[in-house]
Specification:
The complex is a heterodimer of chains A (280) and B (339). Helices cover 73% and strands 0% of the residues of chain A. By secondary structure, chain A is mainly α. Chain A has one domain. The longest helix of chain A has 31 residues. Chain A is elongated, with a radius of gyration of 21 Å. The two termini of chain A are 33 Å apart. With 339 residues, chain B is α/β, with parallel strands linked by helices. In chain B, α3 packs across α4, α5 packs parallel to α6 and α9 packs antiparallel against α10. The chains are: A mainly alpha (280), B alpha/beta (339). At the A-B interface, α1 and α4 of A face α2 and α3 of B. Chain B: It is a peripheral membrane protein.
Chain lengths: 280, 339
């Protein structure tokens, strides 16, 4: 026996499967609480992260809006707002990557890894916080959209399903964010990810229908997962959806589910493996 | 070499090897750290100190070799090891945005103390590390020393059997360093075994019971701070003349007591003459009396042990200059260490 050890951990030396599951959930929640506390302590985080989408809304709707022709008699803001929701979700992986790289750089990740907590909680905690965070982002964006004059003409159920699809897209991108955050050397290099995020968000149906783009670019834009979600929610909100009539555009709701599942299936295991390989 | 029985050791490592590409970060390192002592790992940058600490604290998988911490194998039973260690790495690993108290409570929950116990423990640690007044402030406004103390407190949630400190004072100002040293001394009084890596020689000297000098992932030597200094040479007598013209007389006086075959070394710019002696105190008295008889004034006269800087350079060769050889090795501090 050691005289030093006066403070005792509540869980036993050897955990059974039930205890392991309990602590995996409890530890995940502890990490989520930490991120929620960040929002309470620094609500300005939301403003910073939504700065780009909000400025984009104002620019595209009020500055370029009158020059944007997305179809006969279509109010551009009704086309652009759902696109903006999708773009906000698409850029969200940057927030994930940044949070991961900050913890890695400051040694917080190593501290967690040297503790007897459930190792999975570091990753799952990130995932849950980011989905909650994204829901808050969406709520703020929706209020701005309503103020500008955007409306959902879909049923309540369709509207909620549309928001769920947006969160599903964000969820699938968490794992790309975790992977990139673990790969990034430092915060500066994670900041450079914007060079990837920008075309990923923009070469899509977010601001303009792919049918008006050059053929090759239009094809890339159509198959962009962001387009699938943007088009699917336009349909669900009953907002205008000018398309070129291609297969991918006709099946946007299906693809708004398939794409995130595919991305998750690829990047969740890669992110987990990268996390485990921190000990290499 | 001193080898304590394994059952009295908190950390035992045998033949640790870890390779990154073609670089051998650890190349057969052995360690035995007696329970309740402070063990210094001293070496130049890239010597393998950090890799050793990361391997012992389960953050890095070893290529080969065996290590137990608190009696548990780091590879076979990492969770048991994690329940018995605290780790303070090179960065203050605390959340900058949530308060100091919230940090400690979060880590307490993650150590599975339960909410109420975590809160209680956070208050205790804030007290113990002198952070009560800053408890509800965000660490982003803290001084380096305060941040480090919060970091140390976070490592002490479970009152660990072994605390790993990887360069705990790098980047701190002298005040921050002494704050951290005081905190570490406080912990060792409570019986925690500390494994400390540092490239500050005075830090190893002041805090460690034993020091292992390592280079290129291998053991170079291991001893007490005093023993290391003895190994490299005994006492030296040192006289600083008051006037440059007295330098020859002083040199002659020192030469008379110098160890056989040793020539006094003279630093003309500082008017300093020094030489190794076999019996320190008689030599000191003799030189002092001799110079007094000749009517020569001296600015300073004393005995000094070689600094760890000198030991370090002698052991690892001039190839690996310590990056931050600390210069504040005055005689008083030596007396403390060697007493």
């Amino acid at each position: 026996m050691n005289a030093v050890e006066t403070v005792r951990s509540a869980d036993p030396e050897q955990q059974n499967a039930g205890q392991r599951l309990y602590w995996a959930v409890a530890d995940c929640w502890t990490i989520v609480r930490r991120d929620l506390t960040h929002l309470v302590k620094q609500p300005s985080i939301i403003a910073w992260q939504l700065g780009f989408p909000i400025v984009s809304v104002l620019l595209f709707v009020y500055v370029f809006g009158s020059a944007m022709d997305v179809g006969e008699g279509v109010d551009y803001k009704d086309y652009a707002m759902p696109g903006m929701f999708a773009m906000t979700m698409a850029f969200g992986f940057m927030n994930t990557a940044m949070a991961v790289v900050v913890d890695k750089e400051r040694g917080v990740t190593d501290r967690f890894r040297s503790m007897p907590m459930a190792p999975s909680a570091v990753v799952t905690g990130r995932g849950v916080s980011d989905v909650l965070h994204a829901a808050l982002d969406l709520a703020v964006m929706a209020v701005i959209a309503l103020v500008i004059g955007w409306r959902s003409d879909g049923s309540l159920l369709s509207t909620l399903w549309a928001f769920a699809l947006l969160l599903l897209l964000r969820f699938s991108l968490i794992w790309i964010g975790v992977l990139l955050g673990l790969l990034a050397k430092n915060q500066e290099s994670a900041g450079n990810l914007f060079a990837v995020a920008f075309p990923f968000g923009m070469v899509s149906s977010v601001f303009t229908p792919p049918s008006v783009m050059p053929d090759w670019l239009g094809t890339v834009a159509m198959w962009n997962p962001v387009s699938a979600t943007a088009n699917a929610i336009r349909e669900l909100y009953g907002n205008p959806l000018p398309t070129g009539g291609s297969w991918i555009e006709e099946h946007s709701e299906l693809m708004a589910v398939v794409w995130p599942l595919v991305l998750t299936a690829i990047f969740l295991p890669l992110a987990v493996r990268k996390f485990q390989n921190l000990s290499k | 070499m001193f080898a304590p029985p394994p059952d009295q050791c908190s950390v035992v490592a045998e033949g640790l090897r870890k390779t990154y590409g073609d670089k051998h970060a650890l190349d057969g390192l052995d360690l035995a750290v007696p329970r309740g002592t402070v063990f210094g790992l001293l070496g130049p940058n890239g010597a393998g100190k950090t890799t050793a600490v990361r391997a012992l604290s389960t953050l890095v998988r070893l290529d080969s070799g065996r290590a137990t911490v608190g009696g548990y194998d780091v590879r076979r039973d990492p969770r048991a090891v994690r329940r018995r260690i605290g780790l303070t790495g090179q960065h203050a690993a605390v959340d900058e945005i949530i308060t100091a108290r919230q940090n400690l409570e979060m880590f307490g929950r993650l150590f599975h103390l339960g909410a109420a116990h975590a809160r209680r423990r956070a208050s205790e640690l804030l007290d113990q590390f002198g952070l009560s007044e800053a408890a509800d402030k965000q660490p982003q406004g803290f001084s380096g020393g305060m941040r480090r103390r919060l970091d140390l407190a976070s490592s002490m949630i479970l009152a660990p059997e072994v605390l790993f400190l990887d360069e705990p004072t790098t980047g701190l100002d002298p005040r921050g360093r002494s704050e951290v040293w005081d905190a570490v001394r406080g912990l060792t009084r409570q019986g925690t075994t500390v494994v400390l890596t540092t490239h500050y020689l005075d830090e190893a000297d002041k805090l460690s019971d034993r020091i292992a000098v390592i280079d290129q992932g291998r053991n170079v030597t291991e001893d007490t701070p005093a023993g290391l200094k003895r190994a490299i040479g005994g006492d030296r007598i040192e006289v600083v003349a008051a006037e440059a013209r007295d330098l020859p007389v002083v040199t002659a006086a020192v030469a008379r007591v110098a160890m056989q075959g040793a020539e006094p070394e003279t630093d003309a710019a500082e008017l300093r003459v020094h030489a190794p002696v076999s019996a320190g105190v008689p030599a000191l008295t003799e030189v002092a009396r001799g110079l007094q008889d000749e009517g020569v004034m001296v600015a300073d006269i004393g005995l000094r042990r070689p600094t760890l800087d000198e030991v370090f350079l002698a052991l690892t060769g001039s190839r690996t200059q310590p990056p931050a050889a600390a210069q504040d090795m005055d005689r008083t501090q030596h007396a403390e260490v060697t007493a």
